[in-house]
């Protein structure tokens, strides 16, 4: 696992959700312990550096809000949610990216047109559209969604990097799901 986090990035919702598992360390399955620790570090890094990239229409924020408590507690992911709520308008202007909803196959005009991304999860397209629309194409931090493993090469071909918090956990899951 890469312990170095980018200066600016997007966090898939499952990163703060996975970080919240640290509330009850004894309940974390052995195969997820390193993953939870990495997600906690990623969330703390983003809060410390204010390096979060979001869309200016709050689609990512709204997804966070549906999945993480805005109370700021008890978990690190909840702390992140409260921080995003309190600071999203104080982030550097360059970290608030405009994306345009589009009817049709891509969902957003900023979503890359690539044959390997045709079946990309519609609910996650906003993260890719934001990364693609940002001039620096910041990486997307991903924790436990194994489908992203199958799209990483196609995303890289269009200049978007996915930094996996838990590659040792999700790669075997992806391989098992795609066995024929």
Instruction: Calculate the mean pLDDT score and round it.
Output: 94
Structural classification: mainly alpha
**What composes the largest sheet?**
3 strands, parallel
Distance between the termini: 28 Å
User: How many helix segments?
Assistant: 7
Q: Give the tally of structural domains.
A: 1
Order of helices and strands: EHHEHHEHEHEH
Overall body shape: globular
Strand content: 5-15%
Outline the low-pLDDT stretches.
none
**What fraction, in percent, of the residue positions are helical?**
40-55%
Going across the biggest sheet, name each strand in turn: 1-4-5
The radius of gyration over CA amounts to: 16 Å
Total number of β-strand segments? 5
Walkthrough of the structure:
This protein has 180 residues and is mainly α. The chain has one domain (18-178). The protein is built from seven helices and five strands; from the N terminus they run βααβααβαβαβα. A three-stranded parallel β-sheet has the order 1-4-5. Helix 2 (33-49) packs parallel to helix 4.
Keywords:
single chain; 180 residues; mainly alpha
What is the fold's blueprint, element by element?
Blueprint: E1 10-11, H1 14-19, H2 33-49, E2 54-55, H3 59-67, H4 76-87, E3 96-97, H5 125-133, E4 140-142, H6 147-157, E5 162-164, H7 167-178
Parallel strand pairs: 1-4, 2-3, 4-5
Helix pairs in contact: 2-4
Condensed summary:
By secondary structure, this protein is mainly alpha-helical.
């Amino acid at each position: 696992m890469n312990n170095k986090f980018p200066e600016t990035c997007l966090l898939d919702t499952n990163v703060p959700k996975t970080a919240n598992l640290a509330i009850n360390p004894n309940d974390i399955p052995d195969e997820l312990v390193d993953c939870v620790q990495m997600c906690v570090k990623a969330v703390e890094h983003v809060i410390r550096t204010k390096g979060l990239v979001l869309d200016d229409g709050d689609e990512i924020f709204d997804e966070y809000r549906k999945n993480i408590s805005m109370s700021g507690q008890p978990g690190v992911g909840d702390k992140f949610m409260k921080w995003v709520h309190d600071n999203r308008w104080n982030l550097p202007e360059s970290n608030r990216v405009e994306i345009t909803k589009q009817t049709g196959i891509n969902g957003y005009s900023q979503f890359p047109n690539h044959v390997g991304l045709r079946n990309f999860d519609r609910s996650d397209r906003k993260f890719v559209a934001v990364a693609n629309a940002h001039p620096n194409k910041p990486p997307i931090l991903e924790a436990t969604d194994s489908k992203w493993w199958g799209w990483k090469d196609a995303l890289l071909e269009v200049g978007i990097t996915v930094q996996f918090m838990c590659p040792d956990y999700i790669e075997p899951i992806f391989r098992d799901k795609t066995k024929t």
